[in-house]
Amino acid sequence: MRAIRVHQPGGPEAMRLEELPVPEPGPGQALVRLSYAGVNFIDVYHRSGLYPLPLPFTPGSEGAGVVEAVGSGVDRIRVGDRVAYAGVPGSYAEFVAVDASRLVPVPEAVPLDVAAAVMLQGMTAHYLTHSTYPLEVGDVALVHAAAGGVGLLLVQLAKRRGARVIGTVSTEEKARLARDAGADEIVFYTRENFRDAVLRLTGGRGVDVVYDSVGRTTFDDSLASLRPRGMMVSFGQSSGPIPPFDPLVLGRGSVFFTRPSLAHYVAEREELLWRANDLFEWIGCGELRVRIDRALPLESAQEAHRLLEGRKTAGKLLLEC
Ligand code: NDP
Question: How far is the CA of 246 from the centre of ligand 1 (A)?
Fold first, then answer.
């Protein structure tokens, strides 16, 4: 099969297309013939070595396709089922072997490209708005990179829960997309100090929660944008890692800080199915819109990473396997 491989961490050029044997599904596993692999920022961290993986490896943490074969002891998934998953390595390939317990059946109403697009970023938006800081009607949320893959979904789910959403973006086109997703106010954080804008928009109070995936360049002002006892949810570092900080900075507003990961919010199968099925249901009835920026062929993985890291995408980037 064709697969993208990384032998040494580095830039996008560290990814090469190679021929590999099709994996054998082990006990409890299913072999999935992938239709699409989702491209996510975590793939960049794996490729660059920020989150080291044993070498060599096949990047990609998310995909959707059709079950080709099952290993021993698998009874909940059958050959021919349409399935999707997130948080399992090796999806920049034509086939992947996945523990059946991590696979979610994809309803007929949801095309496989949309399923691949929504597993990792959608379930992230779900846990952030429903579990990490469960938004309530009237809460004010600041969502950074509001036109990103997670961002456009996060804005929609925050609105669904009745929050007022202030989104940050870098371009007019991204502002339009974030507004279409429901953002109430947009701040161009590359042009103006977003903390000043947030304080102005909230009458000096600050927001109840900041969902910050940008990291290094936004961290300080995100904390300063919170109301007293608000919550800073630092869930990514697209601009680079946050330097170590003194807990006393949280004391300025008695604010809460958390650094959540999807894995801890879908560890139980029940929780995985809750989040994925909510998303599929809302997509099926047209209440959640998934924007696919583009789908590139598998061999264009390098280009995909350049686009994502270069802030050139809005919504989801896919590889067609
Ligand atoms: P995005 O589609 O959001 O792409 C990143 C966006 O971040 C860019 O489009 C850009 O938007 C913004 N950005 C701001 N500064 C920079 C910079 N210096 N370099 C690159 N981008 C920048 O990516 P994803 O939706 O895949 O992921 C978003 C973040 O969420 C990532 O940090 C990822 O690691 C994290 N994440 C965390 C999870 C968790 O469970 N903890 C799960 C899923 C994702 P703009 O041009 O508008 O500024």
Answer: 25
